[in-house]
Each structure stands twice: as structure tokens, then as C-alpha cells.
Amino acid sequence: MSREIRLNAFDMNCVGHQSPGLWAHPRDRSWQYKDLDYWTGLARTLEAAKFDGLFLADVLGVYDVFHGNLDAALRHSTQVPVNDPLQLVPAMALVTEHLGFGLTASLSFEHPYTFARRLSTLDHLTKGRAGWNIVTSYLDSGARNIGLTGQAAHDDRYDVADEYLEVCYKLWEGSWEDGAVLRDRDRRIFTDPAKVHPIRHKGRYFDVPGIHLSEPSPQRTPVLYQAGASSRGRRFAGAHAECTFVACPSKAVLTKSVADIRAAVAAAGRNPHDVKIFNLQTVIVDATDAQAQAKWQDYRRYISRDGALALGSGWLGIDFGRYSADEPLRHIETNAVQSSVDAFSSADPSKVWTVGELADWIGIGGLGPLFVGGPGTVADLLQEWQDETDVDGFNLAYAVTPETFEDVAAHLVPELQRRGAYKRDYAPGTLREKLFGRGAQLPETHPGAGYRDLRSAAGPRLSAAE
Amino acid sequence: MPKEIRLNAFDMNCVVHQSPGLWRHPRDRSRDYRRLQPWVDLARTLERGLFDGLFLADVLGVYDVYGASPDSALTHATQVPNNDPLLLVPAMAAATEHLGFGVTVTLSYEPPLPFARRMSTLDHLTEGRIGWNIVTGYLDSAARGMGAARQRGHDDRYAVAEDYMEVVYKLWEGSWADDAPVADKERGVFADPARVRRVTHESPFHQLDALHLSEPSPQRTPVLYQAGTSPAGRGFAGRHAECVFMSGPSKQVIAPRVAAIRQAAVAAGRRPDDVVIFTMMTVIVAGTDAAAQALLAEYRRYADPQGALTLMSGWTGVDFSRLDPDGIVEHVENDAGRSAMENITRADSNRRWTVREVAEHVSIGGIGPVLVGSPATVADGLEAWIDDTGLDGFNLTFAVRPETFESVADLLVPELQRRGRYKRAYAPGTLREKLFGHPRLAETHPGHAFRFI
């Protein structure tokens, strides 16, 4: 029996997510992101292929590093315009039964009291299929635009995040005991007030004295995703994350990243495999290698190099508009970009990467790797990557949507199933039960579980705040 | 030609909205509020009844004035537990084509930039059927939940609200020109950067230097609802509101408020009928007057006076548990909503209320009136309300969910149609087009000035 490979779809409520320019492909529907039909159709496709979840990215900012302006980002629609991901979920939940939803939400933009209710609502309406990708970072412009000034803007964002999570855990896990909701018609009691507790949180950044407004949802705390790659981010993920998302371009880089994350989880007193790790991946798969290669060549004609460099400039923090296409990347002397370039070129250290080649690389699937081939070829590669890196699964970006996902459903999933490397049916229960095969709620080893009894103690303190 | 009567359904993502105790009725499905399917079914029922919209209330706090504790609210489930209303809309939108959605969102608790994007997203996904009920906050417990010692003073919060509105108008109306998204596949150009601009705002309350992240939605600014009937609230509504929602127990209370809102619109340079005005109403309708009265008697058996006083205490800021049940309710001034207290004290000089009478009245349909009878009797009543007060329509609450709305769609609407007082089909287009005949904010509306031409 091979190790199971887990698949998420990776999408965003915008035109063209990780493949700039391909929205203009005749079969691409990403420009229909404003229509519910696109999303409900996608959700059905993913559930038919037994994807664990749909992971929805979000950015509350714009890619304006390239040439120092927004022109390329707007012209090529690189993640702008971008709509709110949250509201896609209820419509997709209505037409599916098992598919999970990983929602990206920055904790910088909403108070934990209202945010916790939003996520509880989502967990109720999906019957326990909600996940939250915790984003702690905010662009400087983003912070300014929500009126964050002074202390919170200057302190370590992970300290703020730790306290934010503490407030959420108290609301989700501690405020309402199991059994608080009686729904007793005869005794005229809906809720037993003795089993509902004000959280009385008084911290450095937040004061939240009251009770959680939502009754307990199936998972209480949604499944927690995180994507932080810095050492402090990894420590945060080690404490809180149940799934992490990385974007490593080579097996060597991914191996190290997976090991580092599992070590951080162990350092936080948890089982290293209590976290599921997904790498960003794009696959172009068809019935045969030749057909897949032909499809790739067709897609490539639509890549927007300026769009790709607008994304790359934003991600790597350097204005590639200042360089010609044949400029070798190693000549660009910036620490930030050098480490990223080293990372994704390490698969082939002898190769000289130019700005133009970077654009082509990003053009389909962003900074993640791209596999092209028939079902056997792609399945071989995925299994090889998993075996060598200890990664749990893949966040599949699309080249052309929903075609990429339909191709995965038609060609790749049956091949992986044949190899015993992919589930034939969903496990029962909530998203957390499907992923971990245990209970619907956080395991005892997770710090959030420490806030279940607010009567006897304040629970473990994650934050330095008092 | 008599004036057409408009109907909204009035609901909330919780168990007990305006009829405490009736969640216990055997046919009531309020306990299923956590599921999507009942909301989808409700939306289909409302669309069948040609309702203009579903108006979703919200409260970010707990009714903890009664007995100075949340215990009574929890026991009787009076608007707690409650869930986020926004998330119900996409699923209902997927199952309907015309029904509008008025979502209550308190502007105190979310910065304008992400909020404006949330509403644009909803307007896109509903294809132009979204409305926003602008709330400036009214439960102290909500303000405390957010870390404030208590909520802002009543007038001061309208100053913040004015500033907030200016920011969201700039984002919705002023950041993208109509022709900015070109989506030209041949040239590989999605948006024309020359037709998109950053908006800036500097004030003591809000600072902004940003692009609106959403491309223009069908309505851009959602249809704006407001419910304030205090003097400051009325001025705000006169400037901004396209629909106003009020509540009071009698025509005597409501008629002057309708006139005052229209005067406030005129004072703000708008036309009196630029504002569509709804009052809260509960209808218990059955085949005959006798059957409807029997239904009311049946419902009354489940009514919960303590739950009613728990709501009333929250609305007025007065702890009704400390008052003599047979004593007359006297007026008190505080920072809670003002109209609830006005309703039972000064608004109608001919009517004095004891605590017991308040409890009985509020336990079905809140502070609003209840019309009971055959389709003809109820239609007579509604017509009289419209004709005597200058109202445009009603926000209908439920006694029993969804039975109340089903009986309206099946029994009352056909009667109103026969009388020529109710539409026989939806008008085409967005919610704003259905209500006013034009897709964007009227030229007389302050948001219009922020358009990117």
C-alpha cells in the first residue's frame, strides 16, 4: 500500500491566479470569477475527484513593485481585481457534501470577536468543513488603509497573532460548554446559561470580556492552515497549524522545509505528523505524454511576461522592470531575491537563470514546480516527490480553469487510485476527521484545547500579553 | 392608481428574532437556522411571493440589560446565539433570480476597505441584488465585546458614520471607471490602468490611500437601508438612505415619522420619494377571520413574556425586570436606540403601556403591529396603513418560521394582486432598478458626486 497523496485545489476570487495571461486562453473561465456558477461547478468537479479541499488565497493589496506602479498588474489582471473569498463558500457548500474549504483571512483586518463569529457561522453552514488559513502579515499600505497605527503596527506581528488566536480559542473552545444548548421545548429552555461563559480576555492588544455569539459548531475551531516561512513564522505554525502550505520549487528545498516544519511542531510538544504539509504544484496532464506536452505548448502561448514579472516583483521584493530579459539573475545583487532565486534554481545548479526565464517559470503555476505528462508520468513524479520529501500532498494551482482540475479528475486521480495512493471514498465526518481520522475537534495536544475550561483557569498563555 | 405595496421579509440568523417563545411551536423550524437548506427554501418561498427582498437583521451583542445578565437572553434564545447574516446570502442567491437581500452590518466594527470589498463581492455574486442596512451600533455589550468601555455617544457615532460613508462612496463609485475592465482577450488586456485610480481619505476617523480591489459591480454602491428615527439618525437617513425601516405599534406613531423622513430627504436636496419607507409588521393570515384568530390563539400559547421583556430591555436600555408588571412605563433618556422607548411612552399621547401589556405585545412580532384575519381583512388593514401613513411597504416578521411567510405568499399576495396593489411580476434588473427604475445612485444622492467619469 502506497502512502496516500492528498490534493487540494488552489484558487482565488480573481482573474488568473498563478498563471498570468492565461485568462485569455479560449477555454479559460477564470474571468467568470464573479459568477456563482463558476464556483459551484468547480466545487462539484473537485468533490467528484475526492479533493480534500479548495484552498482560497487572498491578498488585500496590489502588485505595484514592477516599474513602481500598478499598470502591469491591472492590464494583465495579476490578482487584481480581487474579491472577497469568504462569500464563495456557502454557495459551494450547498452543492457539495464532503469538500473542505480553506479560507485565507488576514487577522490584521478584522477584530477577533466578529471574525470568530464569521468562522463559526461558516463551520455551521458547511457542517464542519471550514478551514482558516491564518495570515499574519500585512502590507504597509494595508495597515495604513485600515487605520492601524501606533503600537499594533510596530510590534511583532506574530505576537499580535498569538494573542488573536488566544481570543479565538477562548471564544470557540471555552465560551460554550458541550451540552450548553438544550433546545428543550417543554421546559422552555434553549440554552443553559450556567454553561455559557464570558471569556474575560484582557490582553495587550485586545479586550474581549463577553461570550461567543455563536453556539458551538461541529469543529468549533476550524482546521487551521498556515503558510509562514520565516523562522518566527515556523514557530507560530509549529504551535497552531494543522496544515501548512509551502511553495518549494525543488525536492531539495521541499525536503528541508518539511523537516523544519515537523521539527517546529515537535518543539511545540505535538506529534510531527499532526501537521499535514502541502506544496504548491501545477500539473498539466492528459491521456498521453504527447498530448500533455501539446497542451502545455498551447498554454505557453498565452503567458504574459509582464504579468509574470509583476507577480515576481511583488513576491521577491525587487523591481524586475529595471532589467532586460536576458539579464542573469545572479547579477541582481539583493539578498532577498538571491535567497529565493537560489531556492528555485537549486534543482539544476548549473543553469544560468535570466529575468526572461524567471518570467516563463512564473507564467504557469507561479513559483511552484510544473509537471507535464500522461497519468503515469505525473503520478510517478508526485509519488517520487512525496517519498523523497515526506510532503503529505499538493495544493494544485491551475493553468487553465476549470480544465486543469477536470484533467486531474479524469486522468491523474484514477491512476493514483490504481496505485493505492489516493482515496476511493471520502472518510466520514468533518474536515478535521477526514484529514486526521480522529475527532471533529482539536486534539488534546493542540494549544487551543487548553482553553476548553475557562472556569478553572485562564488556560495556557500563548502570548506575552497580560 | 393606488400605490403599490412593497413587502420585505424580516429575519435574522438566529433562533428567536421578534417572536420570543415561538421556537417551541411544533411547526416552527427556527432551530434549523444553522443549516443552509431552510434559508434556501425560504428564499424560494419569498421569490414565489414576489417579495422585494429579505431583510436580515444583526446584533453584535447580547441582550443583557434584563436582570443585568445574559441569562434570560440565553435561556429564551432571544437573538443569542446568533450567526453572521452575510454568509447566508450567496447560497440563497444561487437559488433565486430576483429576490433582493438587505444585510445589516455595523460600520463600527470593520474598516472601510475590506468592508467595501465584501459588499462589492456580494453585489457581483448576486448580480446586483444586494442592499446594506447601515447600523452604527446600539448594544453596550457589543461595544464591550470589541474592547470599548461603552459605545460612543448617540450623536458622535453619526459623525463617524458620515465619514465612513464618504470613504466607501469613494471606493465604490470613484476608484474604477465604467469602462476600466475591458477584458480584451485578443490584446491580452484585462483592465485599462488609466481608468483605475487610487482613492485617498484623511480624517480623524479614517485614513485611506488605496485602489478599490473589486471591479465595478452591477449596482456599485449597494442599495442603502437605514433604520434610525432619532433626530441625528433621521438626518443621516435623509442624506444617505434609499430605503428606511421603522417600527412602531400604531399608525399614529408611524405617520409623523414617515413625514419626518421625507422632510429630511428634501432638506438634503433629494426628492421625498427618493426614499422607500417600510415599517415592521406581522401578519397572521388564514382562509377566514375565524381560522386566523384561532391560529393567533394557538401561537399565543407559546409566547414568552420574559423573552419579550428581555428584548425590550435591550432596545430601550431599561431593565424591565425591575419594574412593576402593572406599572406604566415612563420615558428614560440614554444612549440605546431611542425610538423603542418613544414608541411606548411619548409617541402616542392616547396610549399608555403597562409592563405587562408591553410583554404581551412584544412577544409576537416585537414592537410592531399584528394584523390577523382572512386575506381580505389583512389586505384592508395593510391598505389603510399605506394610505393613512404615507408608507411604501412593510418588513414582515414571522411568528412561526417559515409558516408565516408561506401563508403570506399563498394567501395574502394573491388578494393584494387582485386589488391592483401588488406587482404580478418582478421588474427587470438589479434591486435598485426594481425599486427605483435606475441602476445607479440617483443624481440627488450624495454618493453620486464621487463617480469616476
Task: Summarize the structure in words.
The complex is a heterodimer of chains A (466) and B (453). Chain A is of the alpha/beta class. Chain A has one domain (6-451): TIM Barrel (Alpha-Beta Barrel), CATH 3.20.20. Chain A is built from 16 helices and 13 strands. Chain A has helices at residues 36-48, 71-75, 88-94, 112-125, 140-145, 151-154, 157-174, 231-240, 251-267, 289-300, 305-316, 335-345, 355-363, 375-389, 403-418, 431-436; strands at residues 6-12, 53-57, 100-106, 130-135, 181-184, 189-191, 201-202, 207-208, 223-226, 243-246, 276-285, 370-373, 393-397. In chain A, strands 1-2-3-4-9-10-11-13 form an eight-stranded parallel barrel, surrounded by six helices. Chain A has a two-stranded antiparallel ribbon with strand order 5-6. In chain A, helix 11 (305-316) packs across helix 13. The N and C termini of chain A lie far apart (50 Å). In chain B, helix 6 packs parallel to helix 7 and helix 13 (375-389) packs across helix 14. The mean pLDDT of chain B is 92. Classes of the chains: A alpha/beta (466), B alpha/beta (453). Chains A and B meet through helix 2, helix 3, helix 4, helix 5 and strand 6 of A and helix 1, helix 2, helix 3, helix 4 and helix 5 of B.
Quickly list its features.
heterodimer, A: 466 residues, alpha/beta, TIM Barrel, 8-stranded parallel β-barrel, disordered C terminus, B: 453 residues, 8-stranded parallel barrel, two-stranded antiparallel sheet, globular
